[in-house]
Description:
Layout: H1 27-49, H2 53-75, H3 80-103
Amino acid sequence: MPKQTRRNRKQSKTVKSHDYKCCDATFDGIHGWYKAMFEKLGWMILAKTKGMGEKTAHYKHSIERLCTAIIQKKENTHDIDKINDLDLLLIDAEVLLEHAKKNL
């Protein structure tokens, strides 16, 4: 078998959609993501005033993905306390998403 070089190696393509399900996010990962989205809101308000519409669109999409990740984690979690925590995170993330859609 000939040695693979860069030219004859199979090229992987970047997946543009985030609708695929690779693996579940961890609870700590979701909590950190949730916290970062709230902290980033101030920066997005400044980005909107400077006319950076693409940044705010990506921010809204990231919040939608966060909500999806929380729902998926909730479906696969059996611990009642964590499910209750995820419910609270989801409610707050949905409020953040509504605010971002209305004001950004």
